[in-house]
């Protein structure tokens, strides 16, 4: 109920009309990684990703799931243009896009205050933006002049979220943004993210291990296989966000658990 | 027109400074039609750099340096300045009576293994006693101030050093074992030779002939004054760094003894003899490609003038 | 009182007191000629200060030190960063770096004087040339150890060159810059002495060498100590407050 | 071929070739006396090597450099670590550090020769004393920047002193040690030259000074270059492989 | 059902027989933090903890919960002896104990291999211990010679867990050990932790934001208040671990949600 489960090829070709792989580049926000290898420190090479490709429809919310160490972060890094050493291609639209990212670690500048960390990330035209609303939203207004070393990890993650939210990006990549936060705070921030996404034309790709979170937020789930990673399956969720709670959500989860046993809640 | 300027590199506490100071103070430069500009330098190395860089016109150095530079195409030339040379000093109570007695002891050497005094002593030891000082003593090459100091504290048995260090030691219970002039005589010099002199570029001197001749004349006049007048010395005393009267008097005495008095041609002839001896010992390292004193090492203009 | 003694000022005072005691003892052991005691050295320094001689030479030397330091640090920072971040720059620069690193100060100074002339620019250039490779080597290590995570963050948020340099790179290089500056200032001053010895007519190096020739240890120590005091003053009054400011973000020790 | 040229060896070769060209041009510009060309310099070096003179002096100088380096680096490492980790040690040591950092090489050398004697120990001690404060200053910065998270981990798992030093502290200090070593080796060699000039009867510094007195630029360059070549060799054949090994854990650049 | 909810004072005094605060030190594994203040970089001080004290009964499994930034990590640091700048006391037994800790970040030595990172933490008497079982358990045997920079964050966290598990500590402190892991892996590791705890006499204190995880693992929950932190309440869970699944667990969660609304799942 609510979860339209599709086999990979159907999902991609049938539903989203992805062109053939060799033309992927022309399309908005598409990634095609034929192979990604890492050199190991002790010589040798490992192939981490093989034939992984997907397309992000503009202004949708996609969740990326997969076992620990399968290549999710690597994929995000390739999309962000931080790793060019792979075979495959990223569409020009993606290359040109203005990104914001929440990394798996907060990645704050330790020598700049909370406020400066956010302000430095703003594009020039927003330089004077009032940061009070976003700092209020992450409940860190009192800490705007604090340095990152004075924050708890959860607080630092919230700063990283505030930074990503305030740059008003075209594409927002989130790598497990809500871990290390108590449920109440996490929920508030999830709502904030949804609001942001609904109020502005932003395309979101979020990595998470929390299937419940994915079910509540995403339009679509992409599940990766163990390495060498490829797309093991995708699922569209068409249920409106407002309706995803209580029994409806439980049902959705059961559906998903059935479709992807590896994501099982328990 | 303004008088031509002659820039002379001097060491602040060096002996040359006394003469230069006297020239300026007494207006001998103006009198001889040039203007003397002393350039105070910290060491003789600075002088060599200065003349090569063309930043000073006249420095004080020796004919070995001049001859070698000439051989390599730099037309430096030389006018005698002083016959004071170095000597090997030993404590008064040292048992050493001749160079031969230095065998096996530690001997300090100023100016390095190519120092002309050291080479002359080596030649002398070879001639008289048939041994090589460099082989049969332990030479310690070090900066001159150290040598004086190390002789005082007994680490060295003897030290070959420059005359103004020795003049000081003489008042403290040290004596000359053998001096450079002794050695020169042994090699056939007919009188005291001027080991150091004013060194300048011949081509520059040709362009500034009057000024340079004036400088030589002024130098003579200053020497004359310093050779006779004690008052002239009293004025210099503060810049002589003489701790007591004995040192002061000895410095004056030594300076006066060192005023060259012989015709330049005679000196040149003696110098050639000695040069050959030194070239034989110092080898190519010392003299470069010139096995004999390069022609023109002594300023030809002066020779003609005589 | 106890807390004063273990406080930063107290400890430094103790340390300086120990130094003076050692000095006095040494002066007894070696005699006043080879190791003049503090009183006579300071008396000499006072005399030279009163006569204006010492301040004159000190000012000249300080100016040379500052000029050479500014040149060397800015060039060293640029080359070090380039060589640390780009393999090509590193491979190209390496032979030159090692050449200049190991070129004896004497040679560089002599060549600078001969080729440029016996003037102030040659002197300052010679000093800077001696220091640049040292700064480069230190900064290069820092550039190699830069945190890639933060660099990635800066790229994603489109920091651009200047912003990245100012907010991401330089703060990380701070300890390397501090090391290069401190040891650099000291190195420069050592070389300025040689430069002054070989071709200048003023400055502390010139004076020290003069007094060395007449073996006046007292004068040598006086000139040295005045300079050291100035450096101690700069360190305590300028460098350390600056450093505290630059490091205020570091977690306070428990 | 193209990849060879942009490879590490190719780039270095290009760089050296450029150096030689510059040198030849300079030698035309300044004349063979003030700037002898590479051919005559290498011919001279070859002659001196054949005569055994250069290898003798080189060996002596290298021994002095190595001895002083070993002493200075181990003491500098210890004091730098102590001062970087303990505020008390830092406050106590600071005045001494600044004193030795800014004591002119000349003074230290003169005092060592006077107080200890005109011998090898004095020479090596004088050189080491000149280098120790530089090493200390650099290592101290590294010690101050140590990662507290890892130190806490080591404490919780009861690493103890030696284990912490070896597995937690030293690897973090590696870039600082590398910087201190490289610039230290260069500094030591510069000071060895002065030490040899002032009171030793052999070594490259002694030879260079000898040739300086007769203003033989060719010989000076020959001795300098041979030493630089040796350093380049050590760098490429010993230091860099060691460094690559020590840094193999760093993420490979993409 | 299964959750015995007790008001704070009752729980401490009535159930666990804690002596008066000033005698806390004699007792096994007790912490009493009267006040913990931090100096702020821009001058000033903040009080983070005030009058926080609890006792860990040996060989029990306690979970510590509380809002983001309330002082959980700070409390662990004080227990570990890493922060002595507080007023209060830690019992001698706790000071002497052999600890293992999983920090909120992996804290691996980047220049040592996975295997060395674990081995270095072993006490001398275990130096030769075979690490294959624990590496197998965290599924990283293939990576034993890899360096931390070659691991994904989830893999690094697993190394940190393996390190803590293999030292056989008296007290195991875990700061959100199972975040950044996919549910399957996390569950396997939770089981591993339970097994370890049941097979050896170890006292566990685990910080978590995941109430479900806490309900499944803990004997007792300690919930902290927002800063300045103190114990807002404790709860004993007497239901045996084997029985905590399905309906029973759901019930437990509902109970807990009722008792501590701030921990609400959604
Ligand atoms: N620099 C590297 N060198 C070698 N291998 C690497 C490197 N970076 C990542 N890997 C490998 O690539 C794989 C994928 O890593 P990645 O960080 O993308 O995983 P992930 O899906 O984000 O995992 P997690 O959920 O744990 O964060 C891992 O198996 C890891 O070992
Ligand atoms: N070094 C410090 N200087 C100043 N304040 C600090 C410092 N360390 C922690 N704090 C403050 O102490 C409080 C508690 O921090 P702590 O890290 O203990 O939180 P936590 O409960 O572990 O939070 P989280 O769940 O986010 O990890 C925070 O408000 C933080 O701002
Ligand atoms: Mg990841
Ligand atoms: Mg925490």
From TrEMBL, chains A, E:
It comes from the Bacteria. GO terms for molecular function: ATP binding. InterPro entries: AAA+_ATPase (IPR003593), ABC_transporter-like_ATP-bd (IPR003439), ABC_transporter-like_CS (IPR017871), ABC_transporter_ATP-bind (IPR050166), P-loop_NTPase (IPR027417). Keywords: ATP-binding, Nucleotide-binding, Transport. PROSITE patterns: ABC_TRANSPORTER_1 (PS00211), ABC_TRANSPORTER_2 (PS50893). Residues 33-251 form the ABC transporter domain. Pfam families: ABC_tran. Involved in beta-(1-->2)glucan export. Transmembrane domains (TMD) form a pore in the inner membrane and the ATP-binding domain (NBD) is responsible for energy generation. Belongs to the ABC transporter superfamily. This is NitT/TauT family transport system ATP-binding protein.
TrEMBL record, chains C, D:
It is found in: Cell membrane. PROSITE patterns: ABC_TM1. InterPro entries: MetI-like (IPR000515), MetI-like_sf (IPR035906). It holds the Pfam family BPD_transp_1. It is a multi-pass membrane protein. It comes from the Bacteria. The keyword Glycosyltransferase does not apply. PANTHER family: ALIPHATIC SULFONATES TRANSPORT PERMEASE PROTEIN SSUC-RELATED (PTHR30151:SF38), ALKANE SULFONATE ABC TRANSPORTER-RELATED, MEMBRANE SUBUNIT (PTHR30151). Belongs to the binding-protein-dependent transport system permease family. This is NitT/TauT family transport system permease protein.
